[in-house]
Amino acid sequence: MRAYTGRIREAAKRLLAENRVDVVIGFRKGTIPLMNEPYLIKSVDQVNQLYWDSNCGINLANYLPKRPDRVGIVAKGCDSRNIVVHILENQIKREQLYIIGVPCKGMLDRRRIMAERNGREPLFAEELEHKVRTVRYELDLTRDRNYFLQDNCRICTHRNPVIYDELVGDLVEEQQVDRYTDVRKIEAMSAEERWEHFEKLIEPCLRCYACRNACPLCYCPTCFVDEARPQWVGKSLDKTDTRTFHFLRAFHVAGRCTDCGACERACPVGIQVRQFTKKMEKDIKELYGYEAGVIADERPPLDTYRPGDPEPFFK
Amino acid sequence: MSEMYIAKEKFPATVKQLMGRCRVYGPVFRGQYHEFAELKAAEDADMGYQNTRLSPKELFHPQSERMFTYSLDKSDSEAEILKEAPKDFSSRVILGIRPCDAKAFQLDDRNFDVDRFRDPWWVKRRESTTLVGLACNQPCASCFCTTVGTGPFDTGGLDVLLTDVGNGYVARSTSSKGDDLLQGMEGGEKVSSEAAQKVMDLKIKAEKQLGVQFDVSTLSEQQMLELFNASFWDDIQFSCINCGICTFLCPTCWCFDIQDEVHGNKGDRIRNWDSCMFPLFTLHGSGHNPRSQKLQRVRQRFMHKLKYYVDKYKDGVACVGCGRCVRFCPVNIDIRQVARLMSARCVCPA
């Protein structure tokens, strides 16, 4: 995917030179292996800082809400879907955006690579055609890149941007996969088992709220956990409060979540928070046949009423 | 100073001896990463680890600590009287802590243990703890301890330093607490001259690998307001998502918030870690927030560590270079880059 870098720079240069946009949001090369930094450029002389490889997992749509200017934005499939959600939710206007679409082959999971290396970060990493090589002291490891993909990328069915003004490469083939095997496993549990499962899942939570802050959907001016008057949620590590945060966050993104995986990517303690949001996603799909962030000119099912809406709770 | 060599096959027995004397905490692999936990069995300590995901500050400054309990029941004769919550201050050894993390406790002492303010729980925990460190033979790519005045073999914050020399550990005491600990140990051997040489070689190699990655010496010379108003903050803050990871993982971030939690007639006064990355951190009762903008919060964290602390204590920066914030920032904000910008002698036009 590094080959996209040149095309992204070309596009950014043209857009800024022709005054089509005020800024371009993309990534610049990170300071450590397997990491890049979201980056905003304002002038043509900065375009060579833009960079792309398989470590651009953070969702750039997170930087859009309420921006007043004209923005060029680099967007892979999931970012583009979150841009659609932002447009639907009036966080940004389509006319303000110039979307540089990136057909994506999945992003690398740095944690998985670290785990493979016994918790030790590599001193050096490089991306080969279908492989990833990492080196640290005596351990030189080359593995299939698919082996290190983020969980959400493995089951992604929208690798290509759903909305764009230009593409930096040929569209890639979409995967035909069952997205919900893990959700069904949890659904099959008894209520007690499920409770136990989720208790264990969120046990290491520090309440740093990185999952929320990495999420493009979490743009509330004041999150319910930050309300101080009244304070809805306690600040200690009381389990009820931690649960409340995770459950409410999941419900709040129901019908909006694109499974971009930014939450899991950000979590410092490796909680698979997508287990909550994916259940919501599956329900919305089953009830309304709806996928978030795919159609830009139709109201999402949870913010409108249609006579045909399923109402299984009316008995 | 006393020293001994402990062969690796005898190491579990040595740990067991310690466990017979006091509580022993060590690096334990749980789920996806290592953390310090009280050892139930000597073998649980994984001395081949890199470092713990979270800093060990939790051992002295718990993320959520019950300080006092009280009753609101009017019929209770002790209603509305704060009572100190029971805590365990019995002696303990923390085994395998990295030199940088141990050094961090000394920085934290400036907040919790000074003449004007003395946090009784921090102080008691520090007094009852012996720190047995593990030298860093193979530092991470994101570590920079040698740049900020500590090092992979720094004994400054430790009572004993262990160095893995292959088949065993060389243990050297670096304080009277450490002397006491080692003198009471059985099964240690004399340190051979080869082993002593190996320690020296490993130290030089690790220090050389880390190198000096930026210059902290110029920070004190910088004008505070010039740094405060520098244009680079706008660039640095862009990617920040204002999560609290950097502060929660940092061994020298000590800020906390105190809250009362009441359930029915019973209440607890609890001290929780807080983070300057959160808008609520500085929200005034009036509704005014002096750091309402992300830029202000990002700047605060770096200015505190690399300028305010430097000017106030005149003893270096409030960072030990453990690299956790570098490794786990989801958007790759790298304190080393920020430090380079802050310490640059002149700001060259871009």
Description of the structure:
The complex is a heterodimer of chains A (315) and B (350). With 315 residues, chain A is an alpha/beta fold. Chain A folds into two domains: 4-109 and 149-303, no CATH class; 110-148, no CATH class. Chain A has ten helices and eight strands. Chain A has helices at residues 4-17, 77-88, 110-116, 151-154, 181-187, 191-202, 210-214, 239-252, 262-266, 274-288; strands at 23-29, 36-41, 71-76, 97-102, 124-127, 131-136, 139-144, 166-167. In chain A, the strands form two sheets. A five-stranded mixed β-sheet of chain A has the order 2-1-3-4-8. In chain A, β1 (23-29) and β2 (36-41) form a beta hairpin. Chain A is globular and about 60 Å long. The mean pLDDT of chain A is 94. Chain B is α/β, with parallel strands linked by helices and 350 residues long. Chain B folds into two domains: 3-210, no CATH class; 219-343, no CATH class. Helix content of chain B is 31%, strand content 19%. The longest helix of chain B is centred in the last third of the chain and has 20 residues, at 294-313. At the A-B interface, β2, α7 and α9 of A face α8, β10 and α10 of B.
Topology:
The complex is a heterodimer of chains A (315) and B (350).
Chain A: H1 4-17, E1 23-29, E2 36-41, E3 71-76, H2 77-88, E4 97-102, H3 110-116, E5 124-127, E6 131-136, E7 139-144, H4 151-154, E8 166-167, H5 181-187, H6 191-202, H7 210-214, H8 239-252, H9 262-266, H10 274-288
Parallel strand pairs in A: 1-3, 3-4, 4-8
Antiparallel strand pairs in A: 1-2, 5-6, 6-7
Chain B: E1 3-7, H1 11-21, E2 23-30, E3 33-38, E4 64-71, E5 83-84, E6 92-97, H2 99-112, H3 120-127, E7 129-134, E8 160-164, E9 168-173, H4 176-183, H5 193-210, H6 224-228, H7 232-237, H8 245-249, E10 256-263, E11 266-273, H9 294-313, H10 324-328, H11 335-343
Parallel strand pairs in B: 2-6, 6-7, 7-8
Antiparallel strand pairs in B: 1-9, 2-3, 4-5, 4-11, 8-9, 10-11
